[in-house]
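My current task is to audit a protein record that another person submitted. Alongside the sequence sits a line of tokens, each denoting a local backbone shape. Please read both lines and tell me whether the tokens look consistent with the sequence. Do not assume that whoever made the record got everything right. Thanks in advance; the entry in question is below.
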Amino acid sequence: MTTALVPLHYVALGGRGPEDVVADPEGRVLTGTEDGRILRIRHLGDPDTARVETLADTGGRPLGLELLPDGALLVCDAERGLLRVEPGGAVHVLADSAAGERLRFCSNVVALADGSLCFTVSSRRHPLDHWIGDIVEHSGTGRLLRLAPDASEPEVLLDGLQFANGLAPSADGSFLVIAETGACRLTRYHLTGPRAGRAEPFAELPGMPDNLWREGPDGPVWVALAGPRVPPLDLLHRAPAAVRRTAARAAVRAPFRPGGTIGVMALDDDGTVVHRLTRRRSGFRMVTSVCRAGRHLVLGSLWEPGVAVCALPAAR
């Protein structure tokens, strides 16, 4: 069942593009902006008392975030690679290359129980500022990587993904859910069991998934839909590679403005939809992340200069 996504208010950040949002145990929300800052937002429930503080500056472009139990923050930086930000603000590079290539476009990261870090690379052909080129070209150069404890360089777990993006673990840690933005789907990658190391479809979606966020060990996986499915784009993806490359070159030169239809979903570990919320003609556009903070849903966006605070859906 689809319900309305109801924005209650907005919190300006003094910077554009809070691409990912994650909530800490105290209900504060962390995000990163295009100027390189990592921000923490307090008192989101009241726009008059909301406060934004700067925790660090990565010197690049932070995207996906993952809080660690010791208070440190993992950051996928589109320019610098996989980073660790200490509680005091110090920034350390954990990985900036894989399989002999510089990490061009790190997207999202999760920490596993064994101490290893799994993260996605959206594209090996297009940088962040040309992201639409990869969506149009359908390059299939996205990757899932794993950085083992004490390893100097990550290993490639999965290749050939269509704009690999958000990442979330299952409740029991037996598999990962990967968002493939360019294919409008979620993919399951098995970490343990007889199918370990294999991938399979998890869910087909009505739009382009971006960041994923797990609502606690027993909660659902929330999915931000950065845009609706576009039938002409699906048709283009079946065209020859040369046609797609030509279309991609045109797309990165054309002016872009996202549409006004936004949406988020929540799914359980069987891939069953728990919530689906949408809004048409929204003033807040291109939702790239969603998390729950207290009694609210918080939306991030690669496009907007702030975050949207929305009502929670009714329990099902």
About this structure: The domain at 2-311 is CATH 2.120.10.30 (Neuraminidase). Residues 58 and 236 are 37 Å apart (CA to CA). The chain is about 10% helix and 45% strand.
